[in-house]
Input
Amino acid sequence: MAVTSGYLGSEKAHTDHPEEEHDPRESLMYDPLPRGVMNDMVMESMHTTSWKFWVVLGILAFLVATCFFYAWGYMIAKGLGVAGVMRPSYWGVFLVNTVFWIGISHAGTFISAILRVMKAEFRRPFTRAAELMTTFGLIQAGASIFMHLGRVWLAYWMFPIPNERQLWPNFHSPLMWDLLAITTYVLGSTMYLFLPLIPDLAMARDRSTGWRKTFYRILALGFRGTEGEWRHLTTAMNIFAFAIIPVMFSVHTIVSWDFAMAMRPGWSSTVFGPYFVLGALHSGMGAVAVVLVIMRSTMKHMDYFIRKEHFDGLGKLMMVVSFAYAYFFFNDYIVQWYGGDRWTDTLLHWLEEGPMAWMFFQMVGFNIVIPFLTLWNKRVRTTPWLLAIIGLLINVGMYWERYIIVPVTLSINRMPFTWRLYEPRIEIFLTIGTFSMFLLFYMIASRLIPLIPVWEVQEGQMVHTLRKVGKAQVPTVSEFE
Amino acid sequence: MSNLSVDLNRVGAKGALAEEAEGKWGMVIDQDICTGCQACVAACAMENNLPFVMEEDAAYGRSLQWIRIERFWEGEYPEVRTTPYQPMLCQQCGSAPCEPVCPVFASVHSPSQELNLQVYNRCIGTRYCANNCPYQVRQFNYRDYHIEPFHANEVNGELVFTLHNQFNPDVTVRRRGIMEKCTFCIQRIHKAEDKAKSEGREVEDGEFTTACAQACPTNAIVFGLLDNPESLVSQLSHHEHGFRHLDELNTLPRITYLKEG
Output
């Protein structure tokens, strides 16, 4: 396994900056535990629940039952009149939620696929947590799309199902591309979540009894950990890791085309594709930070797996993404403004002076100003609660961004007679419902499947070793073949 | 089945049927003689089974009107001047932005009538067509308005929908969750065509007209055959005061407006 070895940091750097010298054992990779101990820690973190967990779970289940299922059923029975959509904002919070949840789901793919392909070592303990966000976020995005339909019970007409009238879906429609892209992404990311889960499920199977053993036995697909099985699994994961990256980029680009392909002032912008992808990563990174902080503070043994170095790395990523986001943000708005189209000009003035100006400026503040002002500081990056607050603010800002793009931009069109401001009605409850469902799924999953990819951490710890060179302890890392 | 096949040569880049000709049916609206009396709005509602939506929804931008009278003001108070009334209805675009975006082909083009059709049965309510319509003339059924209690009288504790008696039997009553829009009174077009066919001739200009044109007391709305150079609508559409709304978008609208005559 160990083929080459190289130094992570040179001794010279350490002697030049003695105040920065730190114990390499602060890093998870150089602080190994025996495999049995680590497996038991992860199992224990799954089995330990306090009464608070059940209270929160109960509240969320209640919210899902009322705000998601009851509210949606009510809306199906009564029609979209109970929602806030109207002329000219025919699309409202449902589409905002769709774009927002797809954005959240991008973090998982980014962290687990791109960072895995790039061999970024700090990703190891939280790839699973991010991948779960992908799958559960996409469930909410899909639900929000169906909520938005006027006749949701006929939604299957969008699928190319052979029928006696030879009616086929319209592949010219961006909504059709959207459906295909999201379906591909759901399937791909679910499989990609499942593949690295197999060894951990097998580990859990060997350490459980009763119904849990049956549950894990079925899901682990008889994985025993032989050399051949590992080889197949690694090959499959490599294929998926590389294949899911273009899917991830295409999905949010296609979501942005729902807007960019339309003839609306403020929408028909050619930069929307990369702008949406970066926006998705921005909110996704923020959400990962929030989830990691909650995991670390509520679940047992998580402070061993998730350390300052991980928050530090995540904070750096958040900062880089916010730089890139700012680039696309200003590109989008400045080019549109410079174009001088009459309706776009009206729209931009309305955005900064109209009744929703507070939202516009909060968006700029939360997405660009706050990350710029705070994340350069290592102390901020390594303080979990601060990072969680910044992540939360980024998500609020990104939600506002989508809100401005969908219903607020729709308020201004080429027919001034129809200008009117959208106000959400039952959408508020359904939004609470989707958020509760996401958290509920996450909480249930945190007690059913190992949130820490144990084998990945162990693999990382095997290749990172501290070697004695003279008097110094030198961290070394070997590479896989 | 041959009716369903699409002539690929006529399919434009966006999949819409872009027509080179002027179009078959057309309309001319003279804004200078429009008095804004809303008779066309009422006549359209009667003809096409449009329900009342009541104050709350109407004030919130959900009024179901296939034709609306837009009015604007110019200048600051007290030097306010009203501009001519602007009746706005579906422009029956030759290259319609609403058509390519529908994922289920509910918004389609009729090659024989050269009109935009909305297939109510097929619509699943994504409302993309309405977003993409630069004229904002597509209307969504937010509720089942025609069976809402406000549409009825209460007689002996039971709701009696007397207004259902005046439904036009030639036009579908739309349910909630679907999009609808002006059809150029396609039921009248079909009736005239059937009559002409049984008499073995072509439809003539002025044989019938749409409900809005019929109701207009000042004849500000003129409807007829655009492809007949002798027709009034064809001659008026080439009038020097004529213009088309949002012509720069190249949607090829079939309605010409006359102003400042």
User: Anything to note?
Assistant: Confidence is low (pLDDT under 50) at residues 1-16 of chain A. The radius of gyration of chain A is 24 Å. Chain A touches chain B through 43 residues (CB under 8 Å). The longest strand of chain A covers residues 472-478.
